[in-house]
Amino acid sequence: METKQILETIQMVSEEKLDIRTITMGISLFDCIDSDGKKARQKIYDKLTSSAKDLVKVANQIESEYGIPIVNKRLSVTPISMIGAACHDDNYVAYAQTMEKAAQTLGVDLIGGFSALVQKGYQTGDKKLIASIPEALNETKRVCGSVNVGSTRAGINMDAVKQMGQVVKQLAAIDPVSCMSLVVFANAVEDNPFMAGAFHGVGEADKVINVGISGPGVVKRALEKVRGESIDIVSETIKKTAFKVTRMGQFVGNVAAERLNVPFGIVDLSLAPTPSQGDSVAEILEEIGLQSVGAPGTTAALALLNDAVKKGGVMACEHVGGLSGAFIPVSEDSGMIKAVEHSNLNIEKLEAMTAVCSVGLDMIAVPGDTSAETISGMIADEAAIGVINNKTTAVRVIPATGKKVGEKIDFGGLFGYAPVMPVNLNSPAKMINRGGRIPAPIHSFKN
Amino acid sequence: MKAVITVIGHDQIGIVAKVSQKLATLKVNITDISQTLMHGDFTMMLMGEWRESEVDFETIKRGLTELGSETGLDIHIQRQELFDAIQKL
Questions:
Q1: Average pLDDT of A354-372?
Q2: Is B86 in Cβ contact with A6 (below 8 Å)?
Q3: Cα separation, A232 vs A36, whole angstroms
Q4: What is chain A's Cα-based Rg?
Q5: Is B38 in the A-facing interface, judged by CB distances under 8 Å?
Q6: What CA–CA distance (Å, rounded) separates B19 from A55?
Q7: d(CA A316, nearest CA chain B) in Å
Q8: In chain A, fewer beta carbons within 10 Å around the N or the C end?
Q9: What is the pLDDT of residues A108-117, one digit of tens each?
Q10: What value does the CA radius of gyration of chain B take, rounded to a whole number of Å?
């Protein structure tokens, strides 16, 4: 019996907040398409509730038997814009309600896939879906939506960028908190287990289990033991820790897939923070040696962290996928919130950080009077970083209706709060209103 | 089925006896045992093995949780494969 290793594992879970952040079952809805919307929705409800009927039960069993918390049980489905396109309904709010009802019946936390992929243009279903987003996300609690507006192969659809700025504003006008459920992507991935951006890609199997791991606390604790050592040792320490964390993800995914009789897809090697103390990516960067996240050197520290997590994780699992990298959502990371409140971190620095980690401007509250064009400008900038660097980027901003810089917006309970951050007040309106498409970058032509 | 049982808490007379007595009642065979002090707390680890046809995991877990609350000890049980998966290549 390797007592030291057993104790280390137990400590990782009990003191360093190691957990499986999510087990997400991806389910294809292509066999639910029907020209009668009502029939399509009935097929969707039936398929979801039968395919995932044991998901929560199995996750709870694994949690109990192996002593690893599994924080979220989720579903992702084929983008509804593709499923709804065959029907003649004017809008797709009823599809979101069906997703909500299925999620409620199953007891899953969230369901993603109220989505559209419009990087090159809109089909009929895309138009209806995007127009339905404000109402659909405000009328449901567990449904998440995403829209992909750019890709390295297609460029950036600036008409969609413009429209998504308006959609975010419409959503916020009803309830800013519902902006948490909407992500605007460039280079969206098809096997992402994390919300709000999960959807089940068209190239995926009928059903699949994807796992998202966590573990910022474990990495921080490991780095505390190598204070003052060279950066090489920092990288090596992160790699070793990421290996162990990912092994747990692989193991749990295998057990879940076997018990549910669904193929195991990927492990998403992400460091996903939560608002609780000691579960913060910002604190890892500070442990590397920054007085505060946001200081010069932050981007380099994050690049090192992100790369070392991948290198450690890749060998630990059979298939890597999803977003795989460090997440830097402001409101979900106590260290990030602290840095913003002390004016040590601004949106421009966060944007730079998104060039070297997974995803983008995430869970950032901006003043309520921020214009739709300014939000579109932020989306365009992030999409450009993703498209040019061949990586996923995203924007999940929350216009805090009626609030100004320095005030806070509360998301309730575990979701924490976000300080409202200042935004550059110069308008990008003339550029955004041009519309059209930014062509694909030269290095995308690899054939 | 094999599982690792960890017992953490203030040292007291009869910890080993109480835990092994309980495991015997639950029809769990102890195949390995070790104890140490961690941050000043008594820490005991046992490898337990049992026949799934005789007793299920949840019954053992419930039994140990009850013992934990009676004695003020923190008792965990986790299936052993997890540790191999994380720590071994």
A1: 94
A2: no
A3: 60
A4: 21
A5: yes
A6: 34
A7: 9
A8: C
A9: 999 999 999 9
A10: 13
Q: Which residue of B has its CA nearest to A254?
A: B85
Rounded CA gap, A113 and A298, in Å? 33
Q: How many percent of chain A have pLDDT more than 70?
A: 99
Q: Is residue A253 part of a domain?
A: yes
Count of domains observed in chain A: 2
Predicted TM-score of the model (pTM): 0.94
A contact residues 48-87, partner B, Cβ 8 Å cutoff:
64-68
| Pairwise CA distance, residues A44 & A111, whole Å | 13
Structure tokens at A205: 């199997």
Q: What pLDDT is recorded for position A427?
A: 98
Last residue of a domain, one of A131, A151, A186: A186
> Is A177 a domain residue?
yes
Residue A280 has pLDDT above 80, yes or no: yes
pLDDT of A414 higher than 70: no
Record: contact B61-A64, CB cut-off 8 A: yes
Q: How many percent of chain B have pLDDT more than 70? A: 100
- The SS3 call for residue A321 is coil
| Chain B CB contacts of A2 below 8 Å | 83, 87
Residue B73 CA, distance from chain mean position: 11
Return the sign of the alpha-carbon dihedral for residues B23, B25, B31, B36: positive
| ipTM score over 0.85, yes or no | yes
Q: Which of B38, B47, B78 sits opposite A66 (nearest CB)?
A: B78
